[in-house]
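Notes from the pairing session

We agreed to fold both candidates in a single pass and log them together. This is the raw record for the first candidate, unedited. Please don't reformat it; downstream parsing expects exactly this layout.

Candidate A
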Amino acid sequence: MQLDEIYKHQKEGNSKAIEALKKDFITLRSGKVSTAILDNVTISYYDNPTPLNQVGSVLATDATTITIAPWEKNLLSDIEKAIQNANIGVNPNNDGEVIKLFFPPMTTDQRKDSAKKAKGMGDNAKISVRNVRKDANNKVKNLEKDKEITEDESKKAQDSIQKETDNTVSKIEALVKDKESELLKI
């Protein structure tokens, strides 16, 4: 394994950490509801766990309401149970045609709590990036130990790995800061 491969592997690992962070952020509730809050809710459809958006249309009709219109009316009660079991903080309203979820406006405490969760998600992403750095540095040290690269090349490679880590951590901190300000904005 040569240095270019190590750098490439590190960049891929860091990119995955940032993508995972962005996915995590989607699950946080901000002032405006997002259908992503239902992404992990599944129902048994022909004995297969199936996401809600594959059995009906899931729409955010306004800032505080999500409407789920199943393609088969007989799924209404299954969808209702799945949402109750998911414990997303609201009770489903079934009118026989569609299920509506009415989210109350977020309180200041809920906003602060969501911002705190965003910070925790950012910390997890940073840990992931540091693990990628540790892995890359270990590979570089092994190359040096096996006399495949010189001590100077090893030092240069480790500096380069650290620079990439610092850049990624800065991106994560910026993402967290943006998300926190979005969550705290009323």
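Candidate B (folded immediately after A)
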Amino acid sequence: MIEYNKFMNQKSNSKYDLEDRLIEFAVRIIDLAEALPGTVASKNLGSQIVRSGTSPALNYAEAQSAESKNDFVHKMKICLKELRETLVCLKIILLKGYFKETKLAALLKENSELISIFVKSIQTAKNNAK
């Protein structure tokens, strides 16, 4: 993680970058999935949450190279859908009791904040396209 932090500091001096936040979220989701027990259900949830929890970072990177405003909105909507799917997986993991709420609270909060950011960004992009 130290090497990544060095890269992050060299990348830009601007405010906290959404792409960096999504990457950090993806890493935390991977860590969570790897800590799940080895049951059939938890392996399935782990695979699912890794797919949905890492997808927003990748799709957001694609959105930055969108070919049009409509393409940008479409890719941002994919990010939003994946974040909502991740939130449901986190809730299932919580309700199943794989981890205590205190362990998942920060991830649930970050997931909800990212959803809010994408909802607002999509609304703004749609308004700007008019």
